[in-house]
Amino acid sequence: MIEVNNLVKRYGDHTAVDHLSFKIEKGKIYGFLGPNGAGKSTTMNMITGYIASTEGTVTIDGHDILDEPEEAKKCIGYLPEMPPLYFDMTVGEYMSFVADLKKIPKNQKKSMVEEVMEMVKITDMKNRLIKNLSKGYRQRVGLAQAILGYPEVIILDEPTVGLDPKQIIEIRDLIKSLKKKHTVILSSHILSEVSAVCDYVLIISHGKLVASDTPENLGKLAEGSNTLNLLVKGDKDHIRIALGQISDIKDIKIEDAKEEHAWNVMLSTKEDMDIREEVFFKMADAHCPILEMQSKKVSLEEIFLELTEDDKKKKNEKETDKKEGENK
């Protein structure tokens, strides 16, 4: 549906997007993640044709966004971080205006506007001036204009900003329902939102793609993605020897615990392995009672921080090496 190849955006000496490439398939919800300044909004602006790239191409349903802008943009509905609203219009006037811009046929216009307004729950605001709406309702109007015309791709930049918890749940449910007919790209700083809504996650840092996979598979990229934490009483060497007999354990760390004669034990295991039962029996055979046992699942927040932090370290190391080379 969308192909981004070797995309670069430079502002003077600053590279906001650095040779970015990825593909977006039909009928899925993609989460676009990255810290502030990572290049998310810049990438979205280039995909939608709002700004031009320095290098690289963006193809939407076979149409290059720069060579065939009108054909490519027909496939896109876009909600930028700041919704493109006219404050002196009523909600109804604005939706009618957007329908005309999108060249929706006159015989479909009224019914489609009403349908979309009902979908995002702004029908009651139809005759209100946009400038008199709360931030949450303005966000809903922005979302409505993106959906209007039912484009194949809907791109949402921070769609739940300014919404209360109830509204956030409603918008999340709406976004989930959109994938029945649309491909959705969602940029968000709220990682729990991405975990709850998205089928696939792209993580960007310093303008580069550092990871792309399903939320479940991303967990396997993180260190300690499968860990078992124990509080065990007994001899340290006996504990290590007994646990060393379990073939699915990749790493064993044993540290002093606050409790007397007890040890904090952290076990790293192979992917998708549940070793709790085997650990229990090994410790029982070694007469080392388990006082606590806790499986740890890595959250998307931890994966995000680990991947973006690693990329930051690599960038700093390159800059240090470059400076050292220049000094020599």
From TrEMBL:
GO MF annotations in UniProt: ATP binding; ATP hydrolysis activity
Gene3D superfamilies referenced in this protein's UniProt entry, alphabetically: P-loop containing nucleotide triphosphate hydrolases
Family to which the UniProt record says this protein belongs: Belongs to the ABC transporter superfamily.
Annotated protein name in UniProt: ABC transporter ATP-binding protein
Annotated EC: 3.6.3.-
Record SMART domains: AAA
Organism domain of life: Bacteria
Domain ABC transporter: 2-231
Pfam families documented for this protein: ABC_tran
Record keywords: ATP-binding, Hydrolase, Nucleotide-binding, Transport
Entry annotated with the keyword Transport: yes
PANTHER family the UniProt entry points to: ABC TRANSPORTER, ATP-BINDING PROTEIN
